[in-house]
Specification:
binds guanine; TIM Barrel; eight-stranded parallel beta sheet; binds zinc ion; hydrolase; Metal-dep_hydrolase_composite; single chain; Urease, subunit C, domain 1; alpha/beta
């Protein structure tokens, strides 16, 4: 049956001054409906428009869901997160490499039983939906069973996700596998899940320091023979990481060249962090049209550094936002947008309100070439949307009383909002979360 949802004029009834009906970012028109409605059928949006127009198209059997006074937006896309690190969140006192050695690698060793993986995945998905995230790009365990399990669970929720077994062939002896074994697992997961329902496979070499020339060579072969798969890894996150990488691969003039040599730098490659990039790296990456997964909360948490939003915007980079859970200590993309703004300010750059919302929704979908399916609320797209209720946060609600236009309104929602204002989350038209306190 159809689900019918709407927002009403009351949503922004406090706004004074001019509220434009549409705003632009990256030549993309943002449309704001004061009193809107969406018709959803079999997981897809079949109509969207003004409430009164939509109401006239309704059939007697249609089920109407009333979200008066709330705001409906596309679900958030978290373009970089680790599905194996939930129990290790909020680790104290270390930067990247010692944080990995002291907290993350031991935690991932302990993750290995099916029972603990299943429990942790269920907690993680519940928290993602509670935060309004409907799509993830995730790093999974290196084992077939541990990785397969999250594909299975996300498939059960009909979720769109891009994921892969994390390839580690060098480093912590309890975590690593040999290259051949990793590739067999990759092949098996790709065959089973890539383009199955809403799922995509991403070849996931963790980072250059956890790979060898041999395993990177195997990754190159995999990418060549599976050109429609994604690739995700970390790049230039931390200065010590960069130093160690250049010492390990002395033939490389910079970090990016390690991945270039192994054919991993292309338009389906998602690079996490990308903080300490040279001018040449920025240039080669934007020319190759790679996907930048920017994770400001994680970068602040681990003291990794400040992403250059000015460069990304100037170079028209394919910018997406990620939590990098669990180096990022929240799953809220609203909180990520907030830190993105602050980090940009530290470089005296004003990151625009809509650029941030775009990077967490349609911009991310475009970067991932998934914009035929997700990222905005348009007829024919998959019905991944969230219902925001700014009034659920007393302070935000008070601030919005003096909001002067739509941009200020959205800016305040992203500056003060978090999971408390997510009233409901829909994945493929199904209600996967309702906030009982809204
Ligand atoms: N670099 C390699 N592995 C990781 C990880 O798990 N988290 C972060 N933030 N950086 C990494
Ligand atoms: Zn990461």
């Amino acid at each position: 049956g159809k689900i019918f949802t709407f927002t009403t004029k009351a949503t922004l009834s406090n706004l004074q001054g001019v509220v434009p009906d549409s705003l632009f970012v990256n030549d993309e028109k943002f449309i704001f409906l004061r009193d809107g409605a969406i018709i959803v059928e079999s997981g897809k949006i079949v109509a969207i428009g003004d409430y009164l127009d939509i109401k006239s198209q309704l059939q007697a059997e249609d089920k109407e869901v009333d979200y008066s006074g709330k705001l409906i937006t596309p679900g958030f896309i978290d373009s970089h997160m680790h599905a194996t690190q939930t129990s290790a969140v909020s680790a104290y006192g270390e930067k990247l490499l010692t944080w990995l050695d002291n907290y993350i690698f031991p935690g991932e060793v302990a993750f290995n039983s099916e029972q603990s993986a299943r429990r942790e995945y269920e907690i993680l998905l519940k928290q993602l939906f509670k935060n309004g995230t409907t799509t993830i790009c995730a790093y999974l365990p290196s084992s077939y069973d541990g990785a397969d399990l999250l594909f299975e669970i996300t498939d059960k929720y009909k979720m769109r996700a891009v994921m892969g077994n994390t390839i580690m062939t060098d480093g912590n002896p309890k975590l690593i596998t040999d290259g051949e074994t990793s590739m067999l697992i990759s092949e098996k997961l790709y065959n089973k899940w890539h383009k199955t329902n809403r799922l995509s496979y991403a070849l996931t070499p963790r980072f250059a320091l956890s790979c060898t020339d041999e395993s990177m060579g195997l990754c190159k072969e995999f990418v060549e023979s599976h050109s429609d798969a994604y690739m995700q890894t970390h790049l230039c996150e931390n200065v010590n990481e960069i130093q160690d990488t250049l010492a390990k691969f002395p033939w490389a003039k910079d970090y990016l060249e390690v991945y270039e040599k192994y054919g991993l730098v292309h338009d389906k490659s998602i690079f996490g962090h990308c903080i300490h990039l040279s001018d040449s790296e920025w240039k080669r990456m934007t020319e190759a049209e790679v996907i930048f997964a920017n994770c400001p909360i994680s970068n602040n948490y681990l003291g990794s550094g400040l992403f250059r939003y000015d460069e990304a915007v100037k170079r028209n980079a394919k910018l997406t936002l990620g939590t990098d859970w669990a180096a990022g200590n929240t799953l809220s993309m609203l909180r990520v947008m907030d830190d993105a703004y602050k980090v940009a300010m530290l470089n005296s750059f004003k990151l625009e309100t809509l650029t941030r919302w775009y990077s967490a929704t349609l911009g991310s979908a475009k970067a991932l070439a998934l914009d035929d399916y997700i990222g905005s609320l348009e007829v024919g797209k998959e019905a991944d949307f969230i219902v925001l209720d700014p009034e659920a946060n007393e302070l935000l609600n008070y601030r919005l009383e003096s909001s002067y236009d739509l941009l200020d309104y959205l800016f305040s929602v992203s500056s003060l909002g978090d999971d408390r204002i997510v009233a409901a989350t829909y994945v493929y038209g199904d209600n996967v979360y309702t906030n009982s306190s809204n």
